[in-house]
Amino acid sequence: MSSLLKKGWRPAAVLILLLILWEGAARLFDVPSWLLPLPTQIAEEAVTGSALYAPHILSTVMLSATGYFAGISVGVFTAVSLFRVPSLQQAVYPLIILSQNIPVIVLAPLLVIWFGFGMMPKVIVITLVCFFPVTIAALDGFRQTDRDMLHYMKMIGASRRQIFWKLQWPYALPSLFSGLKIAATYSVMGAVISEWLGASKGIGVYMTMSSSSFKTDRVFVAIALIMILSLLYFGIITAAERFALRSRHKGGSPDGPAHT
User: Residue 186 falls within a domain, yes or no?
Assistant: First the structure.
């Protein structure tokens, strides 16, 4: 906890300084609140208008969590399949890279046409956003396997399955968790984008309604909620990473590298 406070006070101080400058400049130049509300006005709206946006938070959390777990499942499965079958990797890997050049906001209406306005197109949007960083990070982790340990396990007659689960998978965990943390933040963004397609609840819906009625302070509240959820997800995955790597290290397993 103390180390977290030591690391976190600098960005917190910068954020507070930026908010003070924002407040001062907006008051000095008399900027209309509909154009750029004061931080104090945004904070007031966040407190007094909690009854308006609270139901939307739960909807976004449920949607982003569902899409996130679907995305990481697809990402891990894709990475393992491509790594275990090199010919498949040569054929599919370039297509995966190309798929990321298609803007999700453009693809989203097509998903609505194909799958309707239900849950399916929204989960697909989040899955498309999340699976790529997981796949790339896991593949990079598999490639970082210690060559000497790999040679040793082959010498003692380990099967491909044993080599993968006892050596290559543990070596890939740090890289995999890096991808999981990136995907966790992307999942919230993907959920908000998918909610713009026609959802009845969610932070994206709250943001759209606020923007259309020129309630700019509420738009900033929605942005703050998205940032908070992204940081929360990132923190959860970071805690899971520390627990997983610490548990493996305490176990004294020789199957992978020791990480401190």
Answer: yes
pLDDT band at 179 (very low <50, low <70, confident <90, very high): very high
Question: Do the domain assignments include residue 86?
Answer: yes
CA atoms within 13 A of residue 209's CA, in its CB half-sphere: 14
Long-range contacts of 88-91 (CB under 8 A, 24+ apart): 89/139
Could you list the beta-strand ranges (E) of the chain. Answer: none
Kindly list the distances between the CA atom of residue 100 and the CA atoms of 108, 133, 225, in Å, as whole numbers in the listed order: 14, 10, 26
Predicted model pTM:
0.83
The vertex-165 CA angle with 159 and 169, nearest 5°, equals: 130
CA distances from 53 to 32, 37, 198, 200 (A): 24, 18, 17, 13
| Mean pLDDT, rounded, for 37-42 | 91
| 160-176 pLDDT per residue, tens | 888 998 899 988 999 99
Q: Which domain holds residue 122?
A: 55-250
